[in-house]
Write a structure and sequence with these properties.
- The complex is a heterotrimer of chains A (351), B (607) and C (341).
- Chain A is mainly alpha-helical.
- In chain A, a hairpin with a 2-residue loop joins strand 2 and strand 3.
- In chain A, helix 1 runs antiparallel to helix 13, helix 4 packs across helix 7 and helix 7 packs across helix 9.
- The longest helix of chain A is centred in the middle third of the chain and has 36 residues.
- Chain A is globular and about 80 Å long.
- Chain A starts with a helix and ends in a 7-residue tail after the last helix.
- Chain B has 607 residues and is of the alpha+beta class.
- Helix content of chain B is 30%, strand content 19%.
- Chain C contains 14 helices and no strands.
- In chain C, helix 3 crosses helix 14, helix 6 packs antiparallel against helix 7 and helix 8 packs antiparallel against helix 10.
- The chains are: A mainly alpha (351), B alpha+beta (607), C mainly alpha (341).
- Chains in contact: A-B, A-C, B-C.
- Chains A and B meet through helix 2, helix 4, helix 6, helix 7 and helix 9 of A and helix 1, helix 8 and helix 15 of B.
Chain lengths: 351, 607, 341
């Protein structure tokens, strides 16, 4: 298993390179650039800007420079400075030598920030929201699905599935404002906008305090996001569990006289979780890197909007940074999913 | 067993809520209502109607639009949000009143103008000498000291010159470098890299508190432009370092919290990117007629989408918010909200431009027909509903030099279905075509607001002219590239808001040769936008620029507008913007017309 | 299997299904499907929707693009009793059963016509996804090893693929003024094709890019699990060719969760279509689609909730129908339930 993991991590590098090449190519193929303005910039200014950001270099050189900054660790003796061009995510000092790694470049749109700043400031918030949404979806979805499967075709089944269908067919863009209206404006139980955690974060992404101040901002967006996902989890759990309980070994277990609860939890559940876990991987990656609509509706300063606005602004480093970030999360999530497969079903072997 | 499961799952959900109520140390969050220590429980002997005075700091809660404030650097700012903060932090030579748009004293308390022999104008500005540079030190606002720490750094002419130089310097690559280049002698050459010696630019520092600016022509708007954000002092020592390294050079990061230095009525104390920005009162601002000493101690800005912000306003977390168009009906019918609603002027114009070289719309009759067939009043009443005005011309009333409906009620072009049909018929008869054979495309950038207007106008053209027009939308950056190049479609949508509130900014900088919507190539020929050439128009603008008699000036612009929207019918002026804002009753405020507010004039009453 | 039947039949052993004759899986499945009332309900609803979409011009009251500007946002009285908060400002008109939208178009007619787009997406989406995804995932999961690795890494790349960038690029290229596209060139023909479909072509592209990957991963997971089972081993032993094993043995056993997952993905396709229409990359106005109507209605949800709620309701009903049908299909196609009620 250890070698399998290492091999997968090496493949991850390949995936990232391929994604980066495709993104880089698409990015430069789209009409319009980062400096398109209603009133066009004078030619001299444009030239200077393009020189500064190396946009006049041949494409292959721009790409290689980018990969060099992002993927290749550099060893220097000069300590990091506050200069914009010098911002690396990882700065490790060993003896007298600094190892500096992952410089994603400046943002064209916000000239006093780098992409690293965006990661440091906004990614933790999206991660917090995404994790909570995931928890909500699992804690609503799985029990509903289990209940529905075990009481198939009874009223509990129909109720459970109806709740989940509503969650899926009312999109966040409708559900969100309803929540804001009901709980934020009318009842005033919860603040309609904002997020309860600010930098600095513990370990780079954990909020510094987990009190009511934090949760009162997190409840509505997590539930709005999580409901939709919970529907998928509920239905998948139900379908999969229904399938599993018809297996012969379940019949054997029951025939042996085992308590029904033991039969379900120890035997049926693990094996029925494979489709659910499959979904959870990409779901986690998508949620944690931020969702555009939810963050817009609840005024949450997360990463989600950068995925869309960077394209609108043609902010090349941010485009590359966000897509690569998403790719990394995705690959790692899928790796975890595959490892969990092996745990859930020991018969699964990776050759 | 089944019961256990339901119970277990409920427990999981419950546990989340229970830990949430655990009540740990509250963190300060921007959207929390202010704690006002003065308002304690009134003693029982005091009648309940008495409200004790507010003793704590006065905090105002506002919002910018969604997305981070792009920059606080006056040299490179280009959007209204950045400029709003820059106006509070850095005051210019002159100040443009946010309501009347008149030019008032800024850091310059007096000035004299001299017209030179070669036609240029030199204005000598006398600056006040009592404005210190300040910064937020983490707990309070303090003045910035000179190298030996003995005195405060005072805003002086050198700071102005430095700021202007940075704005024009091509290395800084300011998107608004062209603005000063239009009026200041030598500025355009410096900005374009033709000269590299700043001494050739018409900015002369006579002494610390006197400076002379030389302008290309004695234009009426020179003073206005000189007060804009592009000509503000900047702290050279923060950007480049000073005191032999004791002050570290911050370069482009100088606007980040902790490094930021300013001198205006408010300074920035905190900036959490994408989330909030906090401005605090500068106690060292002595106050002037144009910019009084601020009464509000702290302003917290969130960065919310319009609909979200209004929800926040209704729940009491914001003190003022713009009303989204979809909610206007509800707000007007609500007794509380309607009393808080203000409907006023917003100095922007919305128009559809023509590519007058494209097929079919290359005939002025077609253009006029399309323009007159738009029922502007119906659009304003039924689609926009925000108290906007139907536009008869482009440089809207409210701008300096612009005609108003009062003195030019029949200027420009009006909605007139019969006349539109007549014009179109004349065209069709001559060409021997029927209306079904006309293939016209209307393009706009992707947005639900523009789509609504386009759909309504598409319908109007169908009803009034029998013409079916295709709608196409494009993403903004792609759209910009399209409508400024050879691919410009027949009809395309655009708007314009003032950089400075003068008709010149509209008529010249948008539609004159090489204007924003009329780009020319290096050979001097139109290459995009409206593709328009008209010397009479340009001559009128040149005359109007230096005409000091306000009545004559307005008349000149009126003539120019007549050419723009009727004689040549290069654009369809559609509507003039309005602003709809709700403000809590305890806020005393002014309402800016040019997209900016002046917070130094606001106050919060006890509530 | 048949040998077991022959032994069990005369003994009448309980628990083992007794078959009168050998029914095909499909026939047996249909019989069981018909008995599932919820599934029948779902099927009927979908049938009704299809009929509504086909006969839209007859059912709708007005054309979907007739604007009556003065009638904008008007509502009939029954909506006011449903949403009493609207009473202070809403204007009444009985000509619009579900109310009028922001430019005075009839919501009911637009929902009826909108069924066309939404049903097209609801059928094409799963079609693309199932065909490509299931085949891809089966091959990957069945052969395992390096094949699996490479195929899944390709899926990883496609997951992270910036589809939004790609779609903007496609549209920028195809939807700019026709002046630079020479008639007869493939690009020009594609643009014309897209126009004739009302702008649906790029929605299909967008959905096609994103739809099948999840199905591939799901299928692969299921196949990985199933292929270790004894009956597969048995099939190997008797020399069954791989293809036969995949389609005759593995596929029927994993179809259940796959079908359910696919029916659940349908709202996702409609959401993709809504998002694309919302950012201007979908159907051209004034063609209605439920997704675009929901996005539009979301703007006015506090003032005129009917404009978002009714398209969302239409969507929900369609989802219910597809889900019940999907469940019924899953139950019907489960080989283990053959011969049972």
């Amino acid at each position: 298993m250890g070698r399998y993991i290492i091999r997968r991590l090496l493949y991850m590098v390949v995936v990232i390179l391929v994604v980066s090449i495709i993104t880089f190519g698409l990015m430069h193929a789209i009409p319009g650039g980062p400096f398109s303005r209603e009133k066009a910039l004078p030619a001299a200014t444009l030239l200077i800007l393009e020189e500064r950001y190396h946009l006049n270099d041949p494409y292959w050189k721009q790409y290689v420079d980018y990969i060099n900054n992002v993927l290749v660790p550099h060893i220097t003796t000069t300590p990091p400075s506050t200069a914009l061009a010098d911002d690396c995510l990882v700065n490790v000092k060993i003896g007298k030598v600094w190892i500096r790694w992952m410089n994603f470049g400046p943002s064209f749109k916000s000239r006093s920030r780098t992409v690293n700043d965006i990661f440091r400031d906004n990614l933790p918030i999206s991660a917090q929201l995404g994790t909570m949404a995931l928890l909500v979806s699992v804690s609503i979805g799985m029990p509903l699905g289990i209940m529905a499967a075990l009481k198939q075709n009874t009223i509990w089944d129909y109720i459970g599935m109806s709740i989940s269908i509503i969650g899926v067919s009312v999109p966040v863009i409708v559900l969100g404002p309803i929540f804001v209206w009901v709980f934020g404006v009318a009842l005033k139980w919860l603040p309609p906008t904002g997020w309860g955690a600010q930098p600095p974060y513990i370990l780079g992404f954990l909020p510094s305090s987990l009190g009511w101040d934090f949760f009162k901002h997190a409840i509505m967006p997590s539930v709005a996001l999580g409901l939709g996902a919970s529907a998928i989890i509920a239905r998948l759990t139900r379908a999969s569990l229904l399938q599993t309980v018809r297996e012969d070994y379940i019949r054997t277990a029951r025939a042996k006289g085992l308590h029904e609860r033991v039969v379900i939890t120890r035997h049926a559940l693990k094996n029925s979780l494979i489709p659910v876990v499959t979904i959870l991987g990409p779901l986690f990656a998508a949620l944690v890197t931020g969702t555009f609509v939810t963050e817009l509706i609840f005024g949450i300063p997360g990463m989600g909007k950068y995925f869309v606005t960077s394209i609108t602004n043609r902010d090349y480093p941010v485009i590359m940074g966000t897509i690569l970030l998403y790719a990394v999360f995705l690959v790692i999530a899928n790796l975890v999913v595959d490892i969990v497969y092996a745990y859930l079903d020991p018969r699964i072997r990776y050759d | 067993m089944r019961k256990n499961f339901v119970f277990l799952s409920l427990l999981v959900v419950l546990s989340m809520v229970i830990t949430a109520c655990g009540g740990a140390t509250p963190t300060t969050v921007a959207t929390e209502p202010p704690v006002v220590p003065g308002e304690t429980q009134a003693p029982t002997t005091v009648p309940p109607t008495e409200v004790p005075p507010v003793e704590g700091p006065k905090v105002l809660y506002q919002t910018f639009g969604p997305g981070d404030v792009p920059t606080l650097d006056p040299a490179i700012a280009e959007d209204t949000t950045s400029i709003q903060v820059i106006n509070e932090a850095f005051v210019g030579l002159t100040v443009i009143n946010e309501v009347t748009n008149l030019t008032e004293q800024g850091i310059a308390t007096s000035w004299e103008s001299v017209t030179n022999a070669d036609g240029t104008e030199t204005i000598t500005f006398h600056l006040r000498n009592d404005i210190p540079w300040v910064r937020w030190n983490g707990t309070e606002v303090e003045t910035v000291k000179t190298c030996d720490g003995s005195a405060d750094r005072i805003v002086n002419a050198n700071d102005f010159a430095y700021g202007i130089e940075r704005n024009l310097n091509p290395i800084v690559a300011s998107p608004y470098g062209y603005l000063l280049g239009m009026v200041l002698k030598g500025a355009a050459d410096y900005n374009n890299g033709v000269t590299t010696d700043f001494a050739t630019v018409g900015v002369e520092v006579v002494d610390d508190f006197t400076m002379k600016m030389t302008y290309l022509a004695p234009a009426v708007y020179n003073l206005q432009i000189s007060g804009l954000w592009v000509a503000r002092p900047q702290p050279k020592w923060v950007l480049e370092g000073d005191c032999d390294g004791a002050v570290e050079a911050r370069g482009e990061r100088w606007t980040e919290p902790g490094f930021f230095q300013s001198f205006g009525p408010y300074t920035m104390s905190e900036w959490i990117h994408d989330s909030t920005m906090t401005l605090v009162k500068n106690p060292f601002w002595p106050g002037s007629d144009a910019l009084p000493v601020p009464k509000i101690d702290e302003i917290q800005f969130s960065m919310l989408d319009e609909a979200v912000a209004f929800a926040d306003y209704e729940s009491g977390n914001l003190d003022s918010a713009a009303v989204p168009a979809a909610d206007l009906d509800r707000v007007r019918a609500d007794p509380v909200l309607s009393a808080e609603l203000y409907n006023g002027v917003n100095l922007c114009s919305y128009y559809y431009g023509f590519n007058i070289t494209a097929p079919i719309v290359n005939d002025v009759r077609v253009r006029r027909a399309l323009s007159m067939a738009v029922d502007r009043q119906a659009l304003v009443d039924n689609v926009l509903k925000g108290g906007q005005q139907p536009a008869q011309w482009f440089a809207r009333p409210g701008l300096a030099g612009a005609p108003t409906m009062a003195d030019h009620p029949d200027l420009g072009i009006k909605s007139d279905t019969a006349a539109a049909q007549a014009e179109l018929k004349s065209y069709l008869d001559e060409k021997g075509l029927t209306v079904d054979q006309l293939d016209i495309t209307l393009m706009f950038n992707t947005s639900s607001g523009h789509q609504r207007i386009a759909e309504a106008i598409q319908q109007m053209w169908k009803d009034n002219l029998g013409l079916t027009v295709k709608l196409v939308n494009q993403e903004w950056a792609v759209y910009l590239a399209t409508v400024k190049g050879a691919d410009t479609p027949q009809v395309w949508r655009m708007g314009w808001c003032p950089d400075y509130p003068d008709a010149n900014n509209y008529d010249r900088e948008v539609f004159a040769p090489n204007g924003s919507s009329n780009p020319y190539n290096a050979a001097g020929e139109p290459e995009g936008g409206v593709f328009w050439k008209n010397q009479a128009y340009v001559d009128l603008l040149n005359q109007a620029a230096v005409e000091n008699d306000p009545v004559k000036r307005v008349d000149l612009y009126a003539q120019a507008e007549q050419i723009l929207v009727y004689t040549d019918a290069v654009i369809i002026p559609i509507y003039w913007y309005a602003r709809n804002t709700c403000t809590k009753p305890y806020v005393v405020r002014t309402f800016g017309t040019g997209g900016q507010e002046e917070y130094a004039k606001w106050d919060i009453l006890p509530h | 299997m048949s040998q077991v039947d022959q032994i069990a039949k005369p003994l009448g052993l309980g628990g083992i299904p007794t078959l009168k004759k050998r029914e095909s899986l499909v026939k047996d499945g249909i019989r069981r499907l018909v008995k599932n009332r919820a599934a029948v309900l779902g099927f009927s609803i979908i049938l009704l929707l299809i009929l509504m979409a086909i006969f839209a011009p007859l059912i709708a009251i007005k054309s979907f693009d007739t604007q009556v500007l003065v009638d904008q946002n008007k509502v009939p009285t029954w909506i006011l009793s449903l949403f009493p908060t609207m009473k202070p400002y809403a204007q009444i008109s009985s000509a619009y059963p579900l109310g009028a939208d922001y430019v005075g178009r009839d919501m009911f007619s637009r929902i009826v016509y909108g069924a066309r787009i939404s049903l097209t997406v609801a059928f094409i989406g799963p079609f693309i996804s199932l065909i490509i995804g299931v085949i891809y995932g089966s091959i990957s999961g069945y052969f395992g090893g390096r094949v699996d690795n490479i195929m899944m890494r390709i899926v990883d790349v496609l997951y992270a693929f910036p589809s939004l960038l790609f779609i903007i690029l496609l549209l920028a290229f195809f939807r700019s003024s026709m002046s630079h596209l020479s008639p007869g060139s493939p690009a020009y023909l594609l643009s014309k094709f897209d126009e004739s479909l009302g702008g649906m072509f790029f929605i299909f592209v967008g959905i096609g890019l994103t739809a099948w990957e999840t199905m591939a991963r799901l299928t692969r997971g299921q196949v990985l699990s199933i292929r270790e089972k004894e009956f597969i081993e048995a099939a190997h032993t008797i020399g069954a060719p791989n293809l036969r094993i995949m389609f005759r043995h593995i596929l029927p056993n994993i179809l259940g969760p796959l079908v359910v997952a696919e029916t659940l993905a349908i709202p996702g396709y409609i959401a993709t279509e809504a998002f694309l229409s919302f950012i201007g990359l979908g159907v051209n106005p004034p063609t209605p689609s439920w997704g675009a109507m929901i996005s539009e209605g979301a703007n006015s949800i506090r003032s005129y909730p009917n404009q978002a709620i009714f398209p969302a309701l239409a969507l929900a009903i369609t989802m219910f129908a597809f889900n019940f049908l999907g469940d019924g299909l899953r139950d019907a196609l489960d080989p283990r339930l053959r011969g049972t009620q």
